[in-house]
Amino acid sequence: MDNTQVGPFLIVKQLGNNRRQKVYHAKQIVQDRDVSLKFIKFPRKITWQTALKKIQVEVKELQKLRHENLVRVYGAGAHEEKIFFASELIHGESLSSLLARRGKLTPDLVVEYGRQIAEMLSYLHEKNLIHSALSPTKILVTPDHRIKVTGLRLNQIGRRRWDAAKQRKMDNAAYQAPEQFIDGATRKSDVYALGVILFEMLTGKLPYELDSMGRLAKKKQTQPAPSVTDHIMNCPIWLDQIVTRMLAPDHKQRPHSAREIVLAFEEIKNIDATKKSAASQISGNFNPLNKGTDKTKAQRLLGSGESDPDASSGSFFQSVPFLMIALAVVAALAVWLAMPPSTEELIKKTREQVESNSPDQWRSASFEMKPLMQSQSPFAGDAEELYYQARQKMLVDLAKRGVNNAILQSEETQQFTEAYQLEIDGDEDQARTRYLQLTQTVDPVGDQRHVFFESKKRFNQLSKQIRLPDSKEELMRMVANTARAQSSKELDVAEKYLSKIFVKCSGTESLAEVAIMAKRQLAFIQRRKDALQEDEEASENPPQEPRSPEQTDP
Question: Which residue in 99, 332, 379, 495 is a FRET match for 261, CA 20 to 30 A apart?
């Protein structure tokens, strides 16, 4: 099916295949973006035309969902009497593939993955939606450890989906809560499914062996799940307790909500963050009595035990002087490692972080540069530049995913996110207008300057067909010439050029005068366009003259 045209998409290659669905990497031609096309099967009793109508209604609601851990749905369509979903293409591997390759994951990685999945579930549950079919095959992991959950349908609490399958599949049943075998899915069912996934990530095994469907259901309903610590020794006690609660057969004993799980995982990370530093551990825990397994020899080395006539013939590396010197060297090394880097080194490191492709590195850069840019340091200017470069990259990354972040949250960032979403949805005219509005309202030297400069950049990219001179005099001449525009078409062209001139000159001190002139002329052009439109409407609908009583129909 490679290179096949499917509606507005061009198939690039096949990504996955199973009995119920096929998944392809495709290119959305007009928007020039990569997408995932998933062709699905539907119940035989429903015609494909009916299925398409129901899918399109469903997709309208799914398109409204925006969360950084949820694969975004773009649309749906039909090809050769087959229905497909178009969604965000994620570069990563499924959690099931990752577990098949690695067996199990470390507790800290499980906590991070679990927190992201719980964040996504909390978002869905607030929208009165559930996933209902969460499993490792529907969880994608990117190279930078971001979780993206796919396979979402419009599962509303208490309502059966139009194409819900009556026959259960064993691989899905492994992650389903006991009540799903009887009554159907709820928010607590999603919590249970996450518990099974956490158990599998920690142990490399499922809580219950996959036998027949009936025996599996009975085990889940009557037998408590085994503890994680029954299988592995390095699981923190509090993590084991959380998973045990999530896998409780009685839904009333599970965590109240997905938000509660998020808070629990954040608390675990806080506990890990407050552990002793390496330096304090070395200086506080180093004890010659712990050297080797025979403590009597260590006591003799310290002179606290009976004298050993053969001690003088022992190794120099087991002598007290050597141990004391080693302790001093280790302590000195720990102090040296704990010393903060010089400002020059910090600037160099931060520049590398900003130039990287890692959102985590950008966030780190912004945190490190903020105190320095507010100081009286001679490097404050460099810090300020790097700080806003990092925020600008973070802004685009979050807008691309359609989410806002507490660090960047503001009215301006929300407006930018909306403009960016219009752009990637193909509505370039509306996006260009929104970017222009931001360049007109955001202060280019204020604390939202990253929004200004990125809006300016994206406006120019969407208006790249217009070429402007660099000379201040030529630009001012172009602004003045727009005053000659009279017709509706001339006014539209003048508005486009003035918008481009204004954006080009904004934020540039040497061209500030041109920006002011262009902004005034834009307002003037807009008033003329409004007046012209009113005249045209008046000519199309002339006021009727009042008629005399003699002219009135009887």
Answer: 99
Q: At residue 127, what is the residue type? A: K
Contact 370, 363 (CB under 8 A): no
- Alpha-carbon gap, residue 497 to 159, rounded angstroms: 53
Taking the C-alpha atoms of residue 525 and residue 482, their distance in angstroms, rounded to an integer, is 8
Q: Would you say how long the chain is, in residues?
A: 554
- Using alpha carbons, select from 297, 314, 317, 294 the residue that is nearest to residue 305: 297
Report whether 173 contacts 104 (CB < 8 A): no
Question: What does the block give as tokens for 317?
Answer: 């590396």
Q: Look-up: residue for tokens 């262009």? A: 518
Element (H, E) at 515: helix 512-540
Report strand pairing: 73-79 vs 147-149: unpaired
Predicted TM-score of the model (pTM):
0.50
Alpha-carbon gap, residue 254 to 156, rounded angstroms: 21
What tokens were used for 358?
Answer: 């890692």
Looking at the predicted structure, is the pLDDT value of residue 107 above 60? yes
Closest CA to 132 of 176, 197, 74, 163: 176
Task: Give pLDDT tens digits for 155-165.
Answer: 665 555 555 55
Residue 351, SS3 per DSSP: helix
Determine contact, residues 207/240, Cβ cutoff 8 Å.
no
